[in-house]
Amino acid sequence: MQIAIMQPYFLPYIGYFQLMDLVDRFVIYDNIEYTKKGWINRNRLLRNGEPAIFTLPIQKDSDFLDIRDRRVAEHFDPKKLENQISGAYAKAPEFRATYESYQPNPLRRN
User: Fold this and answer.
1) CA–CA separation, 18 vs 9, rounded Å?
2) Which long-range contacts (CB under 8 A, 24 or more apart) does 61-67 make?
3) 3-class SS of residue 57
4) Of the residues 34, 43, 99, 108, which has the fewest C-beta atoms closer than 10 A?
């Protein structure tokens, strides 16, 4: 049996998913101390061909909390993040079809 252990990432890179596919068991290691400048709640996108970091804001709390104990900040506006992503990639060849396929469907049961 092959096992992989990784910290959680916000919108992980393709290699993260490839690793998941290669192993029998994938463990998300989230009971360790949160790292402020890590990739747990931030990532990069290309804006005008240049890398730009975006962040999922988290509630202010002790720096010593584990990853699993951190929470998204109340002021987080998902629409703002969606606008950043769509603004950066709207001209990509398959953006429109992909974007529309992931829009919430009011008829779908969650």
Assistant:
1) 14
2) 63/34, 63/36, 64/33, 65/33, 65/34, 66/30, 66/31, 66/32, 66/33, 66/34, 67/7, 67/8, 67/30, 67/31, 67/32, 67/33, 67/34, 67/40
3) coil
4) 108
Q: Is 85 exposed, middle or buried (0-12, 13-18, 19+ CB in 10 A)?
A: middle
Residue 94 exposure: Cα atoms within 13 Å on the Cβ side? 3
CB within 8 A of 8, min separation 6: which ones? 28, 29, 30, 40, 67
Q: Can you give the pTM of this predicted structure?
A: 0.72
Q: E-assigned strands of the chain?
A: 3-6, 25-28, 42-47, 50-55
Which two structure tokens, joined as six digits, stand for 95?
């953006």
pLDDT digits (tens, 9 = 90+) for 13-50: 999 999 999 999 999 999 999 988 889 999 999 988 89
Q: Are strands 3-6 and 50-55 parallel, antiparallel or unpaired?
A: unpaired
Residue type at position 25: R
